[in-house]
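As a warm-up, study this chain.
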Amino acid sequence: MTVAGQGRAGPVPTGSGAVLTGQVALVTGASQGIGAAVADLLAEAGADIVLNHAPGEAEAAGRMAAGIRGRGRQCLVVEADVAGRGAVTDMVGRAVRAFGRIDVAVNNAGISPEASLGDTSDELWDRVHAVNLKGQFLVCQAVAGPMAAAGYGRIVNIASEQGLIGAPRMAAYCASKAGVFGLTKALARELAPAGILVNCVAPGPVDTAMLAEADRLPEMARRIPLGRIGTPAEIAFAVLFLASPGSSWTTGQILSPNGGIVMA
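Now compare it with the structure written out below.
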């Protein structure tokens, strides 16, 4: 995508190396956008994939699975609403039965409805938190057992730079993503003795279907020091680092690839 005032994305590396060969990665919300890019890159890096998608996204998930299998990897496709404990428990159980292990879990599933403070209903608030925060908690809880039994695990929670700086008409979303930061840090401390590392990627504005139209305007590009919005592939490489064995001294961290719009 090109909009006025944007800079140009540099070349994105295509060779991730086989750093995940023999591993199994679960990626939620993986039928499109950032989740799809993550699942594809982890497969390129050697992992077999458990590809979760929400109800109604089976066709897109099927295309993703075909591409992953075309790389020579196995792919288990699981439709599940991550907001439900039963659905998450079943998903993780199916993954363990199919592959015998889960080495990497990427909590990407999320929703971002906009509403003013006055128009934010209880139902909207509860649904956003159920998917964006409770869903991540449920997946972490479900995969922690198999990972602890193996003495190894990588959990990468996807949040947003808006959880750091806030945004108008996004109170529920921003609060849920800020909650992911706290969840990440708490679980990083709790699960470290079991060999499980828990980190967070908090992307800035990225060219996906979830990006608000206002964030595609030239004014947004001018606010970003690098002069453009990001790509799903750029976020996927951040996830790959945290999912890899080479991240062995990194836990409880928030990595925010955002073009410089937030600097901490």
